[in-house]
Write a structure and sequence with these properties.
300 residues
């Protein structure tokens, strides 16, 4: 949340008057004002500080405007997180560290990166090794985004943009890579290195196009669904021969769907923040998916 304060000595009521920005949940572009609609300091109203908070609750902009000016009237200088408000007497307070989300992102980071390492260390046939490497790249993307998120929620504000970029990339590419690897390991798909490179470049190009078009959420949902369907198909195919491997793949797909569609990352779920529940569920899903892939790769 944001606090903006201004202390001043005025003659209103014969004493000192102090304005404080009200803290509120993010519900729109205008979330806080100092004092009431105007602050009187020894006469006419002067400035009102307005706080604007982005959707991710981390990026913010503080601006000042004259009281009584239209909503689209002249604005004072704008500053980002960690900056100083460009109005004398005002100061900006950084948001406190989010310990719960730092921990949940850290757990996800350790889980995803450990699984990526396990997949890379598997000794198997060359074609299957390439599939495992593709899946490891997917888990690595998740781990990289989670590492950045853990640092961001620990208070490293400069990582906000990088965390968002890595999260979008992981959403767009991790599940399709894992789904393709599952299909390659359970069906007679002998993809060579060039085939995996083309698949990776296609996913990256699609993601870049979605970013440029401002449609990362929709594109991430679509390609994520394709990857999840691939895992489900692979799980059903292998279930008859290896129930444990099939169950692990199917469980990973189901938990991923629950995390993304039922839980999400905004708001609260009972006493817990949804983003924390999302992180823990995604870690469980990753364990199931990697376990299924490792088991399948060792039996073919």
């Amino acid at each position: 949340m944001i606090k903006a304060e201004r202390s001043s000595t005025g003659q209103t009521g014969g004493g000192r008057r102090r304005g404080r920005a009200r803290e509120t949940e993010v519900g729109g572009p205008l979330v806080a004002e100092v004092g009431s609609q105007a602050i009187e300091i020894g006469g006419p109203p002067v400035w009102v500080v307005v706080a604007e908070v982005g959707e991710d609750r981390q990026r913010s902009t503080l601006r000042r405007r004259p009281v009584g000016a239209a909503g689209d009237g002249p604005r004072g200088p704008e500053v980002g997180v960690g900056g100083l408000v460009g109005a004398a007497g005002f100061r900006y307070t950084r948001p406190a560290m989010n310990l719960a989300t730092t921990i949940s992102d850290g757990v996800l980071a350790v889980t995803a990166l450990s699984l990526a390492r396990a997949l890379l260390g598997r000794t198997t046939a060359p074609s299957r090794r390439l599939a495992l490497q593709a899946a490891a790249a997917g888990f690595g993307l998740i781990g990289a985004a989670a590492v950045c998120g853990a640092l961001r929620f620990a208070g490293v504000d400069r990582l906000v943009d990088l965390h968002k970029a890595l999260t979008d990339a992981a959403t767009a590419m991790s599940m399709p890579m894992i789904g393709a690897a599952a299909l390659a390991l359970t069906w007679p798909l002998e993809w060579r290195a060039r085939g995996w490179l083309r698949w990776t470049v296609a996913l990256a190009a699609l993601h870049v196009g979605a970013v440029l078009a401002g449609a990362t959420a929709l594109a991430g949902l679509m390609v994520g669904a394709i990857g999840t369907i691939g895992v489900v198909i692979a799980g059903l195919r292998v279930f008859g021969g290896d129930r444990r491997a099939g169950a692990l793949l199917l469980a990973g797909a189901v938990v991923t769907l629950i995390a993304g569609l039922a839980v999400g990352s905004e708001g609260e779920l009972g006493p817990f923040a949804r983003i924390d529940v999302f992180h823990y569920l995604l870690a469980v899903a990753d364990v199931c998916l990697a376990g299924g892939l490792l088991r399948v790769s060792s039996e073919r």
